[in-house]
Specification:
The structure is a single chain. The chain is 39% helix and 24% strand. The chain is α+β, with helices and mostly antiparallel strands. It has one domain: Alpha-Beta Plaits. A four-stranded antiparallel beta sheet has the order 2-3-1-4. The protein is globular and about 40 Å long. It comes from Acetobacter nitrogenifigens DSM 23921 = NBRC 105050. This is ABM domain-containing protein. Keywords: Signal.
Length: 122
């Protein structure tokens, strides 16, 4: 009986992936922003003001606002880099971020699409 339990535990340890460790180092947020064409002017103003304000935020290491070329000029990519995942969490809980998102949401043509992660070197 002991041998069966031992084999089971060993097989589980080999086949079950390890839980993700907390990230260390830079932490990235990439947001695809799709503004409604009818709200593009107002939405752009909000995005540009947000980007400019974040350049002075101590939690943000870098920020870029990229506008898609061509016929889809109402599509943007917002990239933000933070010192750590903890810095990102502090940042998104701030009142300024909450106000920005609340102001931007009515102008979105699709749901908020944010991807989070850290660099993986293997």
């Amino acid at each position: 009986m002991f041998f069966r339990k031992y084999l089971y535990l060993v097989s589980m340890a080999i086949t079950v992936p390890a839980l993700a460790a907390p990230t260390t180092g830079a932490f990235h947020s990439i947001v695809n922003v799709d503004l409604m064409p009818s709200d593009q002017v107002e939405g752009e103003k909000l995005l540009v003001n947000y980007r400019d304000q974040l350049k002075n935020d101590p939690n943000v290491q870098s920020i870029a606002l990229i506008q898609q070329a061509g016929d889809a000029s109402n599509h943007f990519i917002l990239t933000e880099t933070f010192a750590s995942e903890a810095a990102y969490r502090r940042f998104i809980e701030s009142e300024a971020v909450r106000r920005f998102r609340a102001a931007l949401y009515p102008h979105l043509g699709s749901p908020w699409d944010e991807r989070l992660g850290s660099e993986q070197l293997r």
